[in-house]
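sorry for the late reply, my laptop died twice this morning and i had to redo everyting from scratch. anyway the thing you sent over, i finally got around to it. pasting the sequence first so we're on the same page, its 522 residues, then the predicted structure underneath. double check i copied it right bc i was rushing
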Amino acid sequence: MQELKSGNETDNLEDRISLAMDKIVQETIGDIAVSDQIDQPSPKKKNILGRVILSLAGIAILAGAGFYGYKTYYYRDKFFPNTQINNIKCGDLTAQQTEELIRKNVEEYSIQLNFRNDVSASLDGKDFSYAYASDGSVEKIREEQNPFLWITGYINPKKYEVAENITYDEGRLEEQLMELGPMQTNQMEDPVNAWYTFQNGHFEIIPEEEGTALDTAAMLESVKKAVSEGQTQLSAEDCGVYAEPEVLSDSEALNAEVEELNSLMTASIHYWLPDGSEEVLDGNILRDWLLKDANGHYVKDEATIRAKATEYVSGLADRVDTAGKDRPFTTTSGMQITVSGGDYGWKINQIQEVEELFKNVMENSQLGREPIYAQREVSTENNGIGNTYVEIDLTAQHLYYYQNGQVVVDSPFVSGKMTSDRWTPPGIFTLTYKEKDRILRGERRADGSYSYQSHVNFWMPFNGGIGLHDASWRGTFGGTIYKYSGSHGCINMPYEKAEAVYDIITKDVPIVCFYTEPYELY
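ok and here's the structure:
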């Protein structure tokens, strides 16, 4: 490649152009001088003026041609004005000078790597022997220029991109890259799938978390490619090297699952309870009725919901049922006692209630209702016993039948003998049924006979085989007869009194049996 001036070629060309222009100017000046000596216009004078004009035009043309030729010669080994290669201004520079600038630019090379969470790091080219190697591309561009068209550099500037043919030490590059914090596996955070949680009474989707875990091998390949191409910025995000969550917050399946779960949460059952209060079963409780599978997904599983409904109803019955539980009672004598046992009182029909509740939940019902009861208390007065009831004082051996708060029947009686197999247990009961002309039998012996057999006219059972009835075989009632000659557990009454009770008692009349003094069974 030749420099801009080689020997005396350029100087000779300029001298020849200068001598020619001087000759033309001298001849023109001579013609003008001659014309000045002519006082009057004449054809000759006019001719001289024409020659002057033509001479000046020739000078201009010759000067322009000389300048153009000069520039043409000048750009025979240089880039046209305003030429750029790889964003380097190389107009009026030779290919060699241009490559030197490229080389210098390369020697200052570094690449910035951008990671997630606004973390960035730079790799300096000198640390991995980054260098420029010419492949002749720059010289080829220069050779393809037609020097006669140098003026196009002003009219239509050119920009070129050529491969910089970089060389670098891949091993050192890998070492430098792998030392960066974001490339350390112990500093990486795995992505977290979009999920849902229960809050504010319903399920809400928790957006996914991208994390910072990345494929180090893929990142290395991306960096190598970027370095080979001379890139100065590289985004790990754009390279697609990060491990991505498998489930996103806009997942149709996830949103459908949350919608289904929230549909269950819309169920709301307001239980109206005997004491006038309400118990609400809604999403805050129903959330725990869902089955959580091995993957952490909530599932609306029928078997699980039925089991939860059974558990809930059992707990509701514990809170609501009063049958058999302690109940305050005031005796006819004015004594304040507590009566326990028996079957009288509120009692939820747990089997039916479980089925009804299961149906309500599965249908996402929103309603208010009572639990399904197997039995109820007859009144809210007198601790649930009301003003119509039968009082059986097992200590005093006396019965009082209250109707609308008034005693309508009172009678002595004989209750069960105070042995473990014959005594009359305390408690509050209701009539099972009533029947006339009934034969009561004891246990059946091996020979087919019974331990006892008695005919009664009025039979009113209330506690299994224990009931109220007349006892025509007894001549006296009351006192302490029960202690040594009591019944087999029944309340033995005089005929007339048993008949009176039989005539007015109904199934929903509470029967209150109690002892007012301590007792022992023998």
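The mean pLDDT is 88.
thats about all i looked at so far, will dig more tmrw
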